[in-house]
Design goal:
Length: 762
């Protein structure tokens, strides 16, 4: 750095001096030229008036008169003297000062007398610099001699030297100040930030701070962002390596993003992974002149994003943001995540009518309530069904376009929006391996039977090679539905269906979160501190001793109203907790275009207000309802500060909030209260399981959670965290893709298989 400064200063001094001197040179030359022409003018004026007078005296023939005349002019400014010569260059009269210096007639006099014209020159006279003007003298039009007017020109040189001296001092001062200012700028804007950046990088490298805590690095900010990403990757790689080592030591085999990436690459051979879902992982929204990037509140996105991040591939989804079209290329593609691109997002555009009929209508007013059985009547409109079929075909075309050049592509279709897609794809690309994962429950055949298009839906799904549900009972319900609805052979022994010579395997794959565990002794101490918790409460404008947390899309299937009733009952039953326990409900408005959802949002708000009005005192209130979408980073502090997390879904395929809460609790504190009607309840037996319709039971669970011994909390939390660490989302994806890649693609079933299937069906 010092060397850089020295080089910089030397270059600056050299550069500034060179530029200043060039300017000075031209200035001095100009000045000199001005002084010279000024002197010339002055000599001419004097010479002409003197010549007239000399000619008159010459006429009179008086040498003494001439001598007197020249002496009168002897004391003019800068005038060295005048001399008069006759036609033979003999001196006639001269001023005394000039006489001492002029030993011979100047060349200009000779020239003037010969040519009869004025002559002048700057010349040297001994050590002096002089200006000589020679004029011819006439008598009756005859040249009789010459007049020399000699000026001292030394002052011109002196003047130039003075200008040079002043300029030199000015250049020196300039160089000094410019160098000083440059040094200060270098120190403030370069050396300072570089030193801070170095300290920050060192702290990052040694893991003392998080890469989010970036100091003010001025113009190095873009560079710092890149370094932060690099450091993040490095940290991830380091903790993955530590994990691997720990697991090898413990003889465990855990799923990590790296392991999934390797496994999927091996399984795919030269092929690629394609995911199709309605919801996209990133939504671009216009916000005035800038673009907002939003990760939508979706369990599906939470689960699949880390998988695609690990394995690359293409994710095809509905482009739902109002600025989505502004950021895609000519093929409607973009690489994401935007700050660290790892896979391709292909956006599919839907018209308002298509979105209305397919998404809001058939998928969310028909299939969603049909599968959730949460006492909201499903609505089946023929026009919605029409749109649902068209949109499934539209996604098929987009997918076919993406896989056109890919042999044996592996396609993972997601959710109830695309029941028809598996068959549509297989008809066009029998070499594709197609799985569909159904993220919501599958009800019993009687319940499903009210759907007028149940046969088409089941037939569409059976086009897949593999159908995944979260839990076994959803698989069973599906197979029972198949048995009743379409002509096929259900193999209950192997959980598969044979229809029109195509076999579909049906399996449970409990989805999970991106949790590879950080259960080192060091991390156990990273619980939420009292100070952080107080700051969180202060931010909410309340005071409380205990905190509960709920995080949901505002959906009737989540049981938010039932949850609030249970909180009210708890405070009623255990008044000692009034003024002590506050429940924070983070509620992301969802599908509000549908009246049922729109009304529910208002109901949830009104319910919270009613309960608050009933119990609220001073700075305490029982429910804080935060009605907006929160990012994962915003939610994390609430998870970590909470004494309990309430998940009271009336029916749920899995519920990832329960697992996210556990993943966030590296301090091994906090209690999970979980609805028995979630898929997660099958795995998380150490949660306090409740029937959300039973208000008293949930109220009691809140008390039990708050009064549970710390040791018990810890051992429950340890067991559940171990489970989600071992059954994380990488394992989910790994299992799903492995199973799919093992599927035999021959369309003709071997005879033995057929016999086995028919025997077991009988
Ligand atoms: O599986 C249900 C699901 O797709 C979840 O991923 C998510 O919680 C929810 O529905 C999202 O709904 P939407 O995409 O309609 O906002």
């Amino acid at each position: 750095m010092r060397l850089l400064s020295v080089r910089l200063i030397i270059s600056l001094i050299f550069g500034i001096t060179l530029v200043s001197l060039s300017f000075s040179y031209y200035q001095v030359i100009g000045e000199k030229r001005g002084l010279r022409s000024d002197l010339q003018r002055r000599a001419e004026v004097l010479g002409e008036s003197l010549a007239g007078n000399v000619e008159k005296s010459w006429e009179a023939g008086s040498d003494r008169g001439l001598q007197r005349l020249v002496q009168r002019f002897g004391n003019r400014e800068h005038l060295l003297g005048v001399a008069i010569y006759d036609r033979q260059n003999n001196l006639v009269a001269i001023t005394p000062e000039l006489e001492k210096k002029l030993v011979a007639p100047p060349r200009e006099i000779t020239q003037t007398i010969e040519q009869g014209q004025e002559a002048y020159a700057f010349a040297r006279l001994g050590r002096d610099s002089v200006h000589i003007l020679a004029l011819p003298l006439h008598r009756q039009d005859q040249i009789v001699g010459g007049l020399a007017v000699v000026h001292d020109a030394n002052y011109i040189r002196a003047q130039s030297l003075r200008v040079w001296r002043e300029l030199f001092v000015r250049v020196l001062v300039q160089v000094f100040f410019i160098a000083l200012i440059t040094l200060l700028i270098v120190r403030w804007s370069i050396t300072g930030p570089i030193a801070r950046a170095a300290q920050w990088m060192q702290a990052l490298r040694t893991g003392r701070i998080s890469f989010h805590q970036m100091p003010d690095l001025d113009m190095f900010r873009p560079l710092a962002r890149e370094v932060a990403t690099l450091a993040e990757r490095l940290n991830q790689a380091r903790s993955a390596a530590e994990n691997e080592a720990r697991l090898r030591e413990a003889g465990e085999s855990m799923w990590t993003s790296d392991r999934l990436a390797v496994q999927i690459r091996t399984r795919l051979g030269g092929s690629r992974l394609f995911v199709v879902s309605n919801r996209e992982p990133y939504v671009h929204r216009r916000n005035g002149k800038s673009l907002d990037l939003v990760v939508p509140p979706s369990g599906l996105v939470t689960a699949l994003a880390p998988v695609l991040n690990a394995c690359d591939g293409t994710w095809i989804a509905h482009g739902s943001g109002d600025a989505d079209a502004e950021v895609v290329d000519a093929h409607d593609r973009l690489r994401v995540p935007p700050d660290d691109p790892r896979y391709t997002l292909r956006r599919v555009w839907l018209s308002k009518e298509e979105e209305e009929g397919y998404y809001y209508g058939f998928a969310n007013e028909g299939l969603w309530p049909l599968c959730h059985i949460a006492h909201t009547r499903p609505l089946f409109r023929a026009a919605d069904w029409q749109h649902y079929q068209e949109v499934n075909r539209k996604f098929m075309l987009a997918l076919l376009d993406e896989i056109a050049a890919i042999p044996k592509p592996v396609v993972l279709v997601q959710d109830y929006h695309f029941a028809l897609l598996p068959r549509l794809i297989k008809e066009k690309r029998p070499d594709a391996r197609v799985a569909i994962f159904w993220h919501i429950p599958w009800p019993n055949p009687e319940a499903f039977g009210i759907c007028p298009w149940q046969r088409q839906l089941v037939d569409g799904l059976l086009g897949a090679d593999l159908i995944g549900f979260h839990i076994q009972s959803h698989c069973n319900n599906f197979l029972q539905t198949v048995d009743r609805v379409v002509e096929s052979r259900v193999d209950w022994e192997h959980f598969s269906v044979l229809r029109q010579d195509h076999r579909t395997i049906v399996r449970p794959f409990p989805i999970s979160v991106d949790f590879t565990g950080d259960d080192t002794a060091e991390n156990h101490n990273h619980g939420f501190s009292y100070i952080e918790r107080s700051a969180l409460l202060r931010g909410l404008g309340i005071e409380a001793t205990f905190i509960g947390i709920g995080v949901d899309r505002v959906d009737y299937a989540e049981g938010i109203l039932e949850r609030f009733l249970a909180i009210e009952r708890f405070l009623e039953k255990y008044p000692a907790y009034q003024g002590q326990f506050t429940f924070v409900q983070i509620g992301a408005p969802s599908r509000t275009h549908i009246k049922r959802y729109h009304d529910l949002l208002a109901e949830v708000e009104a319910q919270a207000e009613r309960i608050n009005w009933r119990f609220q005192t001073g700075k305490w209130k029982p429910i804080v309802f935060l009605k907006r979408h929160h990012s994962h980073t915003e939610i994390a502090p609430y998870y970590r500060a909470a004494d309990l997390c309430l998940v009271t879904s009336l029916h749920d395929g899995m519920n990832l909030v329960a697992k996210e809460f556990l993943a966030a609790r590296s301090d091994e504190r906090g209690v999970l209260i979980l609805s028995q009607f979630t898929g997660a309840a099958r795995e998380l037996r150490d949660a306090l399981l409740v029937n959300p319709y039973d208000i008293d039971q949930t109220a009691e669970a809140i008390r039990v959670a708050l009064e549970m011994e710390p040791e018990e909390k810890q051992s429950r939390m340890q067991r559940m965290r171990k489970l989600i660490r071992e059954h994380n989302v990488y394992r989910w994806a790994g299992m799903l893709v492995s199973e799919l890649c093992e599927v035999r693609l021959d369309t003709t079933e071997p005879e033995t298989e057929k016999v086995r299937a028919s025997t077991s069906a009988a």
